[in-house]
Amino acid sequence: MPRTTGGVTHARKRKRVLKRASGFVASPGKQYRSAREFIARADRYAYRDRRQKKRHFRTLWITRLSAACRQRGISYSRLIPALIEAGIELNRKMLSELAIADPAAFDAVIELAKPHLYKPAA
Fold first, then answer.
1. Which value, to the nearest 10 degrees, does the dihedral of the CA atoms of residues 27, 31, 37, 40 take?
2. How many distinct structural domains can be found in the chain?
């Protein structure tokens, strides 16, 4: 029985790797071996950054909320417990969107939370 070389399969594999590396500059975009290495690194970064993206967006929403709260004379760190106490279950993303897109609705949410604000003992 003749020996099978798997040439078609290997060519298909190389083609798939080089297609993924098509945007890379110089040899990683043209040569199989360096393309394979660069794709492995790209995959590691993609995996890591899918998780970091969630962190970055939460930070952005909190920053926006903090700025919107300061404009209304309240701090973010006092607003969140007040919202929980008032039973308002809006997440930070939605609150941030309200603060930007519909300031009147955000003001209404803050008014609902105001009676539940923590007042430090003087």
1. 110
2. 1
The CATH number of the domain where 53 resides is what? 1.10.1900.20
| Beta carbons of 72 and 107 less than 8 angstroms apart | yes
Instruction: For residues 56 and 93, give the distance between their C-alpha atoms in angstroms, rounded to a whole number.
Output: 12
In a domain, 36, yes or no: yes
Task: Give me the tens of pLDDT residue by residue for the chain, a chain 122 residues long.
Answer: 788 888 999 999 999 999 999 999 999 999 999 999 999 999 999 999 999 999 999 999 999 999 999 999 999 999 999 999 999 999 999 999 999 999 999 999 999 999 998 877 66
Dihedral angle of Cα 46, 48, 51, 57, to the nearest 10 degrees: -80
Residue 7 lies in a domain: no
Going 107 to 111 to 117 to 122, the CA torsion angle's sign is positive
The whole domain housing 61 covers 17-116
DSSP tag of 114: G
